[in-house]
Amino acid sequence: AQSVTQPDIHITVSEGASLELRCNYSYGATPYLFWYVQSPGQGLQLLLKYFSGDTLVQGIKGFEAEFKRSQSSFNLRKPSVHWSDAAEYFCAVGPSGSARQLTFGSGTQLTVLP
Amino acid sequence: GAVVSQHPSRVICKSGTSVKIECRSLDFQATTMFWYRQFPKKSLMLMATSNEGSKATYEQGVEKDKFLINHASLTLSTLTVTSAHPEDSSFYICWGGREGGEAFFGQGTRLTVV
Q: Is B68 at the interface with chain A, CB within 8 A?
């Protein structure tokens, strides 16, 4: 069975500081990996996704993530955080090949200090 | 890009009444629609999977008679919460999938049962 672990429930960083959100997955085949962001009371917005190819993926809003198969990780990074980045971030994994359900991590709440 | 439009975004209903949530794929045919529920401070949990023209497949623990899902066309799937109770208050999100792995989230519906 597939699973996703986001070990950090809550992270606080200062505006302008760098950010890394951790995501580890368990999956028996080639995974599709996603990062979503959710602002309070809002739906989910896709930040980036990895299907294949270059393991460093660029997303929207200056985010990037690196797929490391040997570590079963897909950590999200941003070099300089903005106050508007405060939100909840979800990592998700799904099977490749067709539209199937995603398994989500429990989320990481990001607080940005001025 | 492809969009899944979900309505309403917020709804307040009285206990015992039914509420219908719609998800429409605007510029693609969603052969599969997934319905998720998000509890406060929790990750998204898959409720059911619906395929156009066939019965929905519900996850374990989800009441079929309470959460009625209809996927009558390739562009419309509906979730009806029947005889709603306060414990049904939650954030419901649909996710429309198509062949090739691409799928898109609706904006979500905040249901409050009073």
A: no
Q: ∠ CA(B40), CA(A40), CA(B113), 5° rounding?
A: 50
Which tens digit of pLDDT belongs to each residue from B45-60? 889 998 888 889 999 9
pLDDT tens digits for A28-87?
777 889 999 988 777 788 899 898 888 999 999 999 999 999 999 999 999 999 999 999
Chain-chain contact of A99 with B100 (C-beta, under 8 angstroms): yes
Start-to-end CA distance of chain B, whole Å, equals 37
Partners of B6 in the β-ladder: B23
CB A5 within 8 A of CB A93: no
Look-up: residue for tokens 């208050």? B89
Q: Any CB–CB contact under 8 A between A63 and chain B?
A: no
Q: Do A99 and B42 touch (CB under 8 A)?
A: no
Q: Is A27 on the interface with B (CB under 8 A)?
A: no
